[in-house]
Amino acid sequence: MSPAAPSLLLCSLLLAVATLVAAARRHGCPTKCGDVDVPYPFGIGAGCFRSKGFEISCVNNGTTAVLPSATHHAIPVTSLSVAPQPEAKVMLPVAYRCYNSTGGTVSLFDGHVDVNTHGVYRISDARNAFVVLGCNTGAYTSNSISNGTGRYNYQYYMGCFTYCSSAGSAMDGRCASVGCCRVDIAPGLTDNVVSFEDWPHDSMDYSPCDIAFLVDKDSYDFRASDLRMDVERASMPVWLDWAIRDEESALTCAAARNSTRYACVSANSECVDSANVPGYFCRCKQGFEGNPYEDNGCTNVDECTRPEVYPCYGICKDTEGTYHCKCPSGYMTTNGGDPKKQQCIRKFPLQARLALGICSGFLFLAVAMLFTLIVCHKRRMNQLFQRNGGSVLEKVDNIRIFTKEELKKITKNNSHILGKGGSGYVYKGTLEDSTMVAVKASIEVSEALKEDFTNEVIIQSQMIHKNIIKLLGCCLEVDVPMLVYEFASNGNLYDVLHGKANRHLPLSLDLRLDIATESAEGLKYMHSSTNHTIRHGDVKSANILLDGNFMPKISDFGTSKLLGRDEDFTMFVVASMGYIDPVFHQTGLLTRKSDVYSFGVVLLELICRKPTIYDEHCSLIIEFHRVLVKNNSGRAMFDKDISVTEEDVFVLDEIGKLAVECLNEKVEDRPDMKEVAEQLLMLRRARKYGEWNCRSPHHFEYKNQT
């Protein structure tokens, strides 16, 4: 016997005795608290858990499991698991700093609950994120003390900042710095202590607190109402990694295997070094399942009873730690494949092989026919491409030509309908670079309309202006060409002003003035700033789209006509009732002043927030005209949400009088779009900078029109 043999024997005996004593003490220990399973090495009560960090308290009449903490905060546990990963899910309180109306701090909590008193846990960097809420807020958390080896006190700092331009800036589901931001965390984090930046918070009753917390990445979806959450009661679900970390000399598998405290006691278990170092954990070997921390805890898996996980297309036979699968007698797999992966088929006699040959011949004919159909389909696609002007448009640099298949992929086979236009449905799509687009039908193109269509697409693609919806490209391999435009996420102005209750957004006077001014700039550009003068022909609030920042975009040129610089009118228009120039009814002529008339109606919609026909029989134009004649002010018609102060009413009156100028029945007395844009711009500048030295930037004397 070697000198080391007695020592090895003694260690083995001590390990066996320690295991028996521990098993005896665990006999009769609770295995559940409320709805939470409590597997060993966790435990409730003396002798039921491996070491201090694994102790679980069962409170509230045995309905709630909590982790021990050195602070006064209880840490509720919602789940504990040893397989397939060592994890615990807990509820941690949020950190906060709250303010009064003058910006003074009234309450503060940094989130510290000392979840890792005994070193067992790490906050999972793979499953959690750090979230900050507020409207002028910066917050961060830190981990891994540098011990003098780094430039700063900690190796990692994680945080972000948020802002809000107004009370309504934060949007549900959007966590991108407006009211909410989130960042990933680094490994090794052991607590949720938060530091807040000292930034001004006076007059921010819509965001009374800075808030920060760790949270399960998949469970938190921001809501604007969270800015006013009850911070003293709020808690968030957080995933913890745990590992065996109870001996400084046994924090890796290599060291732990020779320790009397080695945790992987099941005969079919194995040790794994923790990714969130230091420490290790145990798991059952492949083909076994159960609790590797208990004697005989890892038991054989009968794979044959779980075909959805362990497939077998033949006869299955379970063995210790694995299973065997073979084809029945008279059956085989093709090319000697594995019946765990391939179906077993009957071994063919001569007659079967002859039948297979005949079937193969028919299959060849079917493939040939399919090939012919594909060739015919491609020829048809090419015919449509040429008919719709493809040979001209493919040479234009700033127009992208999409194939039919590309368009199906972009719109996910037309699965998301945004609405219905005059020529068909409008679909939402996503380009390969994640750019959102709107895809809509144009007009059916004949040989006679081919040149007009191509010219109109070219002109639209050349209209580069922030207030005109941008044409990105088209698809010509379809009966009716499809046009691809930039996407305006806030829809059209009509729906925002008059739509359903869930779309009835609050719009400040300044925002409405911005929409009016920028829309006028877009129409001015169309009338006078392009190589071809363009009459829109269908100006209305439904054709003014709003992007994510409520920037207006003039859209829907399907009813417009392109005119040369020297032409004054066209005989073609398909406009909308309520917006049509009465002169067009009388003469059939569409001029630039027709767009001015229609824009006057849009101005009235903006300041009154009423459609052209409201209360079933009232005309917006007639009623506003009547009120203005009677009171020399449109105040009785203005939207109450924006006619608060005398200055507001004055601005609204100026817009109303400008609208009446646009609606003048005498075409020659109407301003042009350049004048309209200039007057709105002057009115916006005067309101912004308080330039009220005169009655107004340009005072329109109201002319009584009878």
UniProtKB/TrEMBL annotation:
This is Protein kinase domain-containing protein. It is found in: Membrane. PROSITE patterns: ASX_HYDROXYL (PS00010), EGF_CA (PS01187), PROTEIN_KINASE_ATP (PS00107), PROTEIN_KINASE_DOM (PS50011), PROTEIN_KINASE_ST (PS00108). GO terms for cellular component: plasma membrane. It comes from the Eukaryota. Residues 1-23 form the signal peptide. Residues 412-682 form the Protein kinase domain. Keywords: ATP-binding, Disulfide bond, Glycoprotein, Kinase, Membrane, Nucleotide-binding, Serine/threonine-protein kinase, Signal, Transferase, Transmembrane, Transmembrane helix. The chain crosses the membrane at residues 354-376. The keyword Signal applies. One of its GO terms (molecular function) is ATP binding. The keyword Coiled coil does not apply. CDD domains: EGF_CA. InterPro entries: EGF, EGF-like_Ca-bd_dom, EGF-type_Asp/Asn_hydroxyl_site, EGF_Ca-bd_CS, Kinase-like_dom_sf, Prot_kinase_dom, Protein_kinase_ATP_BS, Ser/Thr_kinase_AS. It is a single-pass type I membrane protein. ATP binds at residue 440. GO terms for biological process: cell surface receptor signaling pathway. It comes from Panicum virgatum. It holds the Pfam family Pkinase.
